[in-house]
Q: What sequence folds into this?
């Protein structure tokens, strides 16, 4: 692996102070690699403490930090592949947005969040580089989502449901028994066939990943509602929405494409990267290790 944080192409995309903040001196082990973008383990631990305000945060908090880093760096790496650049003016504009949203000027997260907000702004504005990225990968979004799900309160409950499915029990019966979504649960978990935009982002991304990898059953997939065990019932290809008609949907479409197309390598002590659902599957380890 390379030891630099940013690829040659991405160095014009990320401000120098971001490199200085995240690079640690010495021979620290690589914590995460997203495409050609890397962060060393010591720097990831330092960023986690700044982000959470806790010196020795719980492993779930650390995994949350790592997932956030992967999400934003995947976007940066993806857009840099198509020639995206911005300058300090864009970063200052993003910083002012965050300050107006209530982040304090003294907040230790502000510099990094300003960088990421500038990248997000770029993705949402529909520049020629963003259009090129979309056009080259849009077939990944050319699907209806035809699914069923079982919604549980905890990750462990979702894992237990998956074990029962693997033992041969029927999805519809388990949905009726265990799903905390009363509407779909009463219908055997069925959510029908819907266009992109009907589900929350993490659910939608997992289904797209399942379709890409020809996987029928995926989970647990976390969302604000709980943990989903998802079954892809059928694959219905449709014409991807034209770039010019994306509107407010553009940002999420680009985020999905970034996640679906980036290779992610993760220090095994934090868990395993699941490219299908686009999330880290955590490993139970002692805090602070």
A:
């Amino acid at each position: 692996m390379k030891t630099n944080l940013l690829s040659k192409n991405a160095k014009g995309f990320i401000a120098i102070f971001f490199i200085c903040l995240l690079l640690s001196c010495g021979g620290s082990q690589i914590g995460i690699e997203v495409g050609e973008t890397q962060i060393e383990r010591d720097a990831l631990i330092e960023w986690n403490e700044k982000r959470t305000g806790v010196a020795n945060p719980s492993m779930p908090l650390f995994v949350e930090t790592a997932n956030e880093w992967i999400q934003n760096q995947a976007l940066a790496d993806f857009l840099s592949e198509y020639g995206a650049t911005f300058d300090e003016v864009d970063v200052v504009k993003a910083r002012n947005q965050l300050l107006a949203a209530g982040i304090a000027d003294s907040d230790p997260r502000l510099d990094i969040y300003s960088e990421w907000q500038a990248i997000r702004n770029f993705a949402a504005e529909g520049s020629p580089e963003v259009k090129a990225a979309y056009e080259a990968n849009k077939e990944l979004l050319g699907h209806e989502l035809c699914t069923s799900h079982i919604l549980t309160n905890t990750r462990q409950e979702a894992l237990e449901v998956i074990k029962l499915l693997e033992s041969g029990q029927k999805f519809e019966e388990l949905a009726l028994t265990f799903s905390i979504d009363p509407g779909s649960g009463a219908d055997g978990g069925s959510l029908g066939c819907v266009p992109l935009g009907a589900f929350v982002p993490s659910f939608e991304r997992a289904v797209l990943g399942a379709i890409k990898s020809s996987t029928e059953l995926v989970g647990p997939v976390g969302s604000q509602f709980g943990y989903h065990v998802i079954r892809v019932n059928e694959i219905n290809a449709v014409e991807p929405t034209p770039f010019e008609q994306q509107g407010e949907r553009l940002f999420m479409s680009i985020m999905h494409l970034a996640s679906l197309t980036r290779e992610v390598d993760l220090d095994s002590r934090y868990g395993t990267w699941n490219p299908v659902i686009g999330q880290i599957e955590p490993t139970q380890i002692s805090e602070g290790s």
